[in-house]
Structures
1.
Amino acid sequence: MIKQSRIKVGCPFCYEWLPDPELRFDVYSGEGARGGRCECGAFFVVDETGKAGGQALMDVRVLAAGGDLEKAMQLDSEKDFELKTKVIKPSSRRYADRIPGHAYMQPKVWAIRLKNREG
């Protein structure tokens, strides 16, 4: 059994602490991704390497679409959702070996908040 690490990072939308990510299979990646949902309604996934942003973006879109890839691909970034990322600070031992100052190589949280659709 893989030990799940805990993260302590605020939601990029509401700034409340995100719940511990769980291994999810209702995402784009076949092997699953670690993520969840904030109390504010935002969906998130964790890119532990800081190098898999495209995959994390697809994972969080599919997660927000309830696991439906076709629906996720129809979401319009201008009308249907807001996307934000947040670097996980290296205060956690798990992420302490990352290179300071290189945000593109540090673990990140990718979060999507769906916009309310009118009509």
Note: The mean pLDDT is 85.
2.
Amino acid sequence: MLFNSWGFPPFLLLVLLLYYRLPHRAQNVMLLLASYFFYACWDWRFLGLLLLSTSVDWTLANLISREPTRAGAKRWVAASVTVNLCFLGFFKYFNFFVDSADALLAALNLAGFGRHLEVVLPVGISFYTFQSISYIVDVYRGEVEPARNPIDFALFVAFFPHMVAGPIMHSRDLLPQMQKPRVTTRGQVKEGLWLMLWGFFKKMVVADNLAPMVAAVYGSPTAASGGAVLVATYAFAYKIYCDFSGYSDIARGAAKLMGFELMVNFRQPYLAQNPSDFWRRWHISLSTWLRDYLYVPLGGNRFGRLLTYRNLALTMLLGGLWHGAAWNFVLWGAFHGGLLVAHRLLVQEWKLWRFDGRLARLVAQVLMFHLVCYGWLLFRAQSFAQVASFTRALFGGLGALAPLLPWLAPLVALALLLWLVELWVRNADDPSHSPGWRLGLGPLACAVLLVAVVVLTPPGTQSFIYFQF
């Protein structure tokens, strides 16, 4: 089921009506069944995989807590990580690695494997796999007690607002909310409704209306002018931000209506002044996960400069691969790893540029935004050949701009409206703290956004970008 489908509002309303009438334990059972139904609306056959993964991790976490030796506990952790990565590797990466090996063997004039399985990628598998792995590691580290009640843990994994596309929650933050009775406050209801409305606007009005101009350039096999590539890349930057952050806002808003608090996943990332700042603002739950469960275990910055650079590059490389089974995602991850290394070397260590003063910060923001946009070109491109072609087009001049005017008007209008609202509420869950809201502009803003969602949403239901990851 999609948040932006016609079936979601009645589904959520029914869940809320039942939720508010039930005691805590019954709430959890009902939410778990509702979450499984929500997932089964996509493909009921993969419920078995979700149940198997959940059962394995619940069992192994309890074995870890009872294991008398550290070595024994490590073996159970290794077993859990192996099972989870095997599921993820088979469904997401089997054909990718086989096809890559075949291409390499063909280049060497050797016979390939010749096998390609029609594997359907289970929606949300990357998200719930990472969340389960973090739970196992947290139990091993002693940061959280294992869930004794399997219903609580199953709900932690499958909670429908966030299981398909995050945010990826730490067990220490979300699991206790499953285990204790919850009280939904009036403030949470108000904040939740605002977040959902704002999320629907970002997804259905901004992202879905920018999608055609992105597809017109990136989906075409013919070469494009530099101007077309630039405008389409700007459009994709706002499309992917509004699509993904819109999902996170709806997820957080729906959770608030039931008294749950999910972490903030985006904090105006295009205002970042450097690569580190960007990853503190973009997909925060993933960057936090990569830091806590990959970068730090690799050694972080504790073993000298060269190993720090290696750890940064490797973390981002694997973060890129997490996004999808394609080499352009690996290239995108390597690009961001290179930016992090370069920033640490040139700015933090050599101190070649100090960002003092408003003008310097503005220049840094503009530069970082365009570096991120080039990264989106790598992310969205369909092949290395398209990356090379579009890069040449960008540096070869903009070309004729008149044909791009029909694209520029909606792009500028939608981006400007997005920025005005975000700067007004400062990305707050509760915008009623804004002076403008208290002057009576809040209800008017909500009415405008609601009308925009109804009137400006293009026909057809478009899936969220991160469902494919």
Note: The radius of gyration is 23 Å.
3.
Amino acid sequence: MLDWVVGPWFLDVYRAEATRTGIPLDYVLLRPSEEAVIARSRARAVNPIADYTYLRPLYEQLGNVRALDGHVVDTTTMSLEATIATLLAGLAEGRFRLE
């Protein structure tokens, strides 16, 4: 499992490696509202982000992935526990599997 910003523009690399190794590949894009992202980034205990301006273009890019809408989870109002439960259920159902 990789918990990182992996934009859809990197998926071809991951798909190729998954195919080469025979390992199934799931992709989940957590996409809370921009307001929630800003609030959470400012509230971080370690490395808070006071000025979100430079990250706004990345948020916009990750918001324009219509082909992957089935892989998006809006976590704006979700607790950590609810997010984990949603992800585990989606993974078990195959909702996030990439072909």
Note: The helical segments are 11-21, 34-43, 56-62, 80-93.
4.
Amino acid sequence: MRFFSLIFFLLIQFGAKCTSAQEHFNLQDCIDSLARLHLQETNGVGFCVGINRNGIEEIFYYGSVQKDTLIFPVAKIRYPLGALSGTLTTTLFTEMFIRGDIGYDDPLQKYLPFNVTAPVYQKMVCKPLNESGRSLGLQSEPTVRFTPYACTPDENSLPQPILLCYLATHTSGLPAFPNNLKLSKVDGLLYGAYTQNNLYEFLKSYQLSAPISYDYLYSPLGLAILGHIMSIHHQTAFKTLLFDRVLRPLEMYSTGFLIQEDTSVVVINEYAPFTKSIGHRFGDLFGPANGMYSTIGDVMKFLSANIGNRGTELKDVLDYTHNPRILLPISESEDLEIAMGWNIRKLGDGERRAVWQSSTGDGSAIFLGFDEREKYGVVILSAYGASVKGLGFSILKAMKGTE
């Protein structure tokens, strides 16, 4: 513990001011300076930062991935990918519909078993039950009057189905998580025992109360359903589809779901603020949304392929996923665009825009962001449940200043 405290102290003390206005600007000094501030938020729990500038990669490691023992966050350790799992899932979906194996705007119902009914939105018409227009009173409160109404589906409007593309862009109208998820809490892991039958029971009982495709709501449930649909459509395990069509072409051989029996894989201990470490997940139904693991080296390969610094047969697929689908005004001066598994926002002043994804789980955090046009980007993988999005954008802006 004494050695960990000493190295943590040195990291906190080291670093230069992070500004490209310095006479001799050094990007690594800038990243070190930003990292030391973030280490204060994580109480020294470690993380790694990877950058790519015009095909040149550098990786920096900070802190320790174990609270009570000095263990540096080395390259072979796997981290939870959080929301980046969903980005890989939408990449697979894009590859499949570009190839013609599945329909981009096919209805969800087309791929479900015949006895499972997908939710649809149906416009309702409400009319007073009392046609004479007289209202009713309450026996206990005779002065209180009310008119009962009956609501029925509008015969002049067709039911609006959920399309697969709505699942990929979080506009399906489905909630973030199903209302029967609590049934699955096992061994402290919320998703552990949530089964296909649980999912089908939810779909058959859920009712949509608003038109579909207008409102954005980030829904891991929607991505989990999308992964499930691709799997049953091809009668192939989702992890096999993902590996064959996305991970293998990108040479991301250390990415995917954990196998409990595989003791050769080194996985970080995830730490939530002020709590003990969090348990690992092993291929649950929500895995396509937020349950994958990877190494810094593999995520760097994904970054390189997305900015075009690495040749891949998936180049057209990756480029397609960057196209904005939805515009969300977040302030008078800034908008947020939603693409296929990615977010897009301005990168400082001017026309440059960052394509990015980030998430903060119970005990980990991730950021991947890049400027596709200028071909640079950053990856951050953290073993601590404190957001690294601010750190990621600070590094992106510093990289922009060195171009």
Note: The longest helix spans residues 84-99.
